[in-house]
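Suppose a colleague, Dr. K., hands you the sequence of a protein chain of 325 amino acids and asks what its three-dimensional shape might be. Before reaching for any lab equipment, you can write down a predicted structure in token form. Begin with the sequence itself:
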Amino acid sequence: MAISIRRRELVLALGGAAVAWPLAAGAQQADRVPRIGVVYPGPQAGAPPRVQALLDGLRAGGYAQVEIVLRVADGDPSRITPLVTEAIASKVDVLFPIGPAVVRAARSATQTLPIVTIDLESDPVDTGWAASLAHPGGNITGVFMAFPDFATKWLGLLKDTLPQLSAILWDPSTGLFQKQAIEAAAKESKVTLETMEVQVLADLDGAFNSAKRGGADALVMMSSPVIGANVRKEAELAILHNLPVITLYSDFPRAGGLMAYGPNLLGAYRDAGGMIAKVLQGRKAADLPIQRPTKFDLVINLKTAKALGLTLPNTVVALADEVIE
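The predicted structure, expressed as tokens, is then:
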């Protein structure tokens, strides 16, 4: 189907503050423009590239014109439930909550409105959100990561790369799934881990200080909105404390951190946009199989490795999708 693209300004409420945001638009449904409710738990600055990737997926699925009803919690967990309620009250056709805390709030608010999500921290079957990956059976589907398998591969890569790992940064609001998975993988790999909890931006300084005082050789930053949205600050702290750090977020080594290995996040958002398009076309969330991220990126900052006194194995560098020198 040919799609006509033009530019317009859509006023979006970002956690209560109205701002103008350019949005691609077309004319595939002149009678009614679909409304997508997006609830993002992180800071406002992190929302635009994610929503743009979502729009790219919708456009590829045949929807060049949609109305995005965006609500941003700006890192404040107490705002999530009210913002989910606001988005649903806006008469959206599909709700797109991002991350486990927002999915939990959405699940409590509605069991009828179609929900498509990206959640890299939860198991949708274990949480009871889906009966199975192939047939979710309820009103929730989306892109979820198989973290136990990923954690095993992650630690294997790290053992070939870094000194003995001994600390993780974990956001309790994401639930226990990630923490339990990496602890199980660490036990299998005979790696001892200490957990540093981070729930808000202000916790980062203390967490890095505690890791260093505790004698951590290296640090793993788990997936969470607060961690993913503050990679520049985390890279600065890693250098300050002379800590090799790895995370899922590829922006971390680009900001000066050592290494990232994880799913291509914008690709996952495009996949989610394609799933929303299928729901708008009449597919039920109950029958739309849950997807896994299909592309994983390894990004290494060799300049940072040198500053930390590390020599990364050539075999690891050769595997990198991006090397920063």
